[in-house]
Amino acid sequence: MSDTKNAPLPRQVADSYVDALIELDPITGTYLGVPESSRRLPDFSPDGAEAVADLSRTTLARLAEAEARPGADSDAERRCARLLRERLTAELAVHDAHEGLRAVSNLSSPLHSVRGIFTVMPSQTEEDWSAVAARLRAVPAALEGYRASLAEGLRRSLPAGPRQVATVLDQLTEWIGTDGGWFADFTAGGPDALRGELDEAAAAARGALVELRDWLRGTYAPAIEGAADVVGRERYRRWARMWNGTDLDLDEAYAYGWAEFHRIHAEMRTEAEKILPGANPWEALRHLDTHGAHIEGVEETRVWLQELMDEAIEELNGTHFDLAERVKRVESMIAPPGSAAAPYYTQPSVDFSRPGRTWLPTMGETRFPVYDLVSTWYHEGVPGHHLQLAQWAHVSDQLSRYQATVGMVSANAEGWALYAERLMDELGFLSDPERRLGYLDAQMMRALRVIVDIGMHLELDIPADSPFHPGERWTPELAREFFGLHCGRPAEFLDSELVRYLGMPGQAIGYKLGERAWLTGREAARKAHGDAFDAKKWHMAALSQGSLGLDDLVEELSAL
Fold it and tell me: Which residue numbers in the chain have pLDDT < 50?
């Protein structure tokens, strides 16, 4: 029998897990600001994935002992334990179903992790660039391990979706380039003293991309020809648990998506009438693309977005939030070429030596309509992802590193960010018709995601009251057409989005379902406190509790 009296508490188990995970996954180490991780890459082979799974199994056993120890029933320990158990159990379910053997995506895969980590590495000193060179030299082995996993997937008849593979082949071709490629461009700013070493390492990394592309094109793509792009209900339910931290009623969620579609559509018609009388919402948005307020120039847009976030911090701090100085720092960045079309955010390191950053993919454009930027940067930056994830880092010593970092539940974070957009609307920051129609278009996109993500993968029927193909069964082709008719985003963005949903089943629904959880929790807390409800106090308590799955999130938010 184990001696539970001397066992660690759940938060200690969680942080021990993070330490062990960093050894297996140095990419995670770099995101957390661990210098020792900077020269290595993970083992993406089947053996490497099994090592991570073994760590999860061992940690769950240690957690069971920790929960029996005196003191484990405190709120802080209980909250950490429930997150750790839920996350590791969900991750093991995905692993045990061998999903890692067909991990091809235009946004989230080992391949994208390898390239993306270089964009957040320190690059100020010669020692920093020496670490970059070492990590570049590790790229061939990392991608060889990834290829071994995909090859094992072929052997087991576990194919990725053909659309994913075709899109990633295009991405690889862009990264490889014709004159040194992305890695050479990335290292061009390195010091002269390391020029030969950096050039050699960049060339080796580019060569690994060429080998992977040629194998995907010549071996993998022909072998999966005719495979399904959608995953079906069983696989979808597993992935939905992974991304949302709860076992969803998928049919109820699908119906909720349609209810939100109809509600938002009505609001959009009202705003469109203010902009272009007689026009429908998407005609009004196309009008704004040409005649609305816009920013000209990539660098000018980056600066404008920085000012937008700085202004939001100035206006919200002290009224609706109480922000530490280091949380106030956030940087606006331009995403590297070859990124997916959607803007994104990278969180600060735990010690804030690397700040939180928002990233704008330009997709070759130099002119950016304001209506399409404002709500998005409230989502990605302030008060969205940045305030939540930077606050987690700020209070990580009161939580656990696990709760503040690698234990993040996607739907919790994306739900907060969508709630943040709505909050800015509630506070009057989107009173201008252009900006408000852009906000509603963004809200509509998240409702569409619920509809098409669940509808495509489960091959559901389109409801009889739908304005689009009522009674027919969803296909990716219908989903793309539906998006094009009800979303103001450019065609290349919508194409990228569709591939993203097919490659990350269950992730895209977390925005709207997560927002619903945040609103439900706030309303319950408001009812409990009555006139004494303090929005600033509630926001800071909510942002300081770390990550939780959606069921647990509603329960905890309601009690604040």
Answer: 1-2
- For the chain, the residue count is 560
Secondary structure letter of residue 321 according to DSSP = B
Break the chain into its structural domains and give their ranges: 239-510
Judge contact between 33 and 353, C-beta under 8 A: yes
- Name the residue with tokens 């027919």: 472
Backbone dihedral region for residue 356 (phi beyond 0: left; psi -120 to 50: alpha; all else: beta):
beta
Residue whose tokens read 């690889």: 172
pLDDT digits (tens, 9 = 90+) for 73-117: 998 999 999 999 999 999 999 999 999 999 999 989 999 999 999
Shortest CA distance to 478 belongs to which of 455, 458, 497, 496? Answer: 455
| pLDDT tens string 192-237 | 999 999 999 999 999 999 999 999 999 999 999 999 999 999 999 9
pTM equals 0.91
Tally the C-alpha atoms within 13 A of residue 28's C-alpha that lie toward its C-beta: 19
Q: What angle do CA 171, 174, 179 make, to 5 degrees?
A: 155
Q: What span, in angstroms and rounded, lies between the C-alpha atoms of 483 and 493? A: 10
d(C-alpha 474, C-alpha 457), whole Å: 8
Of 217, 220, 223, 102, nearest in space to 171 by CA: 217
Q: Which two tokens stand for residue 502?
A: 């097919």
| H or E element that contains 332 | strand 330-334
SS3 label, residue 369: strand
3-state helix, strand, coil in the chain (%, to 5): 65, 5, 30
Structural contact between residues 84 and 10, judged by C-beta atoms closer than 8 angstroms: yes
